[in-house]
């Protein structure tokens, strides 16, 4: 079954999906959060259902020293709330360097700054998901 990854930010959430075999991650979209937290959760629950997804991989922004800060608490809270809306398993994947790697890849491809802002979260989610798929 498919897997979905989320790179959760305050304004945008990058989304990546796997192929049906769960081998290859691909960028799906960048979702702009609303002020209605429940609406956001319902969006992702519907996406999980429509995609026939069994696992949601959420990037965990662990600090470089391995400690968990406020961002980790916020992301885990989102994940726990999402569990209430779906039967899919929610797992966390260390996302250290994912956004930095995504930004570097986009710069090297020659993408302009304005456009990078709109896709970096989706690319980071793809990196998170592929890292997860590589280890399962």
Describe the structure.
The protein has helices spanning 37-50, 70-83, 98-108, 113-135, and strands at 2-8, 12-18, 25-32, 53-60, 89-94. It is of the alpha/beta class. It has one domain (2-135): Nucleotidyltransferase, domain 5. It has a 5-stranded mixed sheet with strand order 3-2-1-4-5, sandwiched between helices. The longest helix has 23 residues, at 113-135. It is globular, with a radius of gyration of 14 Å. The model has no long low-confidence stretch (mean pLDDT 91).
Query: What percent of residues are in strands?
Result: 25-35%
Number of H/I helices:
4
Return the string of H and E elements.
Answer: EEEHEHEHH
Structural class: alpha/beta
* CATH H level, superfamily name: YqgF/RNase H-like domain
Short note summarizing the structure:
With about 140 residues, the chain is α/β, with parallel strands linked by helices.
Layout: helices, strands, pairs:
Elements: E1 2-8, E2 12-18, E3 25-32, H1 37-50, E4 53-60, H2 70-83, E5 89-94, H3 98-108, H4 113-135
Parallel strand pairs: 1-4, 4-5
Antiparallel strand pairs: 1-2, 2-3
Helix pairs in contact: 3-4
């Amino acid at each position: 079954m498919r897997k979905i990854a989320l790179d959760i930010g305050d304004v945008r959430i990058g989304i990546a999906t796997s192929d049906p075999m769960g081998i290859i991650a691909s960028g799906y979209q960048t979702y702009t959060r609303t002020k209605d937290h429940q609406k956001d959760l319902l969006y992702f629950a519907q996406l999980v259902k429509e995609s026939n997804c069994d696992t949601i991989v959420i990037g965990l922004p662990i600090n470089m020293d391995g400690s968990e800060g406020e961002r980790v608490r916020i992301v885990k809270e989102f994940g726990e709330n999402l569990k209430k809306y779906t039967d899919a398993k929610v797992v966390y994947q260390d996302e250290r360097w994912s956004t930095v790697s995504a930004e570097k890849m986009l710069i090297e491809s020659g993408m302009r700054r304005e456009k990078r802002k709109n896709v970096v979260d989706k690319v980071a989610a793809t990196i998170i998901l592929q890292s997860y798929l590589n280890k399962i």
